[in-house]
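[Structure tokenization] protein backbone as discrete codes

[Encoding] learned vocabulary of local backbone shapes

[Begin record] amino acids and matching fold tokens:

___
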Amino acid sequence: MKPKQVIALRAAAALAAALALGACQGGDDSQTALEAANLKKAVYCMELLEKHHDLETAERECFGETYIQHTPWLPDGKDAVLELFAKRVKENPDKTIEIKRAAADGDLVWIHLHSKNAADDPLGHAVVNIFRMEDGKFAEHWNVVQAVPEESANDNTMF
């Protein structure tokens, strides 16, 4: 399957899940549609950036004119994020991510993922990205990153 087909398939699955969640919760149909659209677009954009390294398409389709960054070591604006991803591709060309779950509430989208610097990395990091969407594009970003430990005090995983 081609990368864009995989993105489309995953986005469709995310949309179906979001619509099913909305149907279970009831509420305003326009709000449910907005949340589903935001979820679909955010998952699509994360896969463009993290899996397919298509920074040109991501710049055009995923970032709003204003992009507020809450990661303390990155300045506001899409340029800093795109530079970070370009650097990551050069330093870790075999970096992988696996989206474990995603959810939307209004204009906010959460994406929980497992990030590894290489496919054979046994542990990697658990990451939660939170995006505020505006007109179908990233407008604001928060994230939490935690290394996956070798040992845990319980039998649960971080995923």
Observations:
- The first strand starts at residue 63 and ends at 69.
- The chain is about 40% helix and 30% strand.
- The radius of gyration is 16 Å.
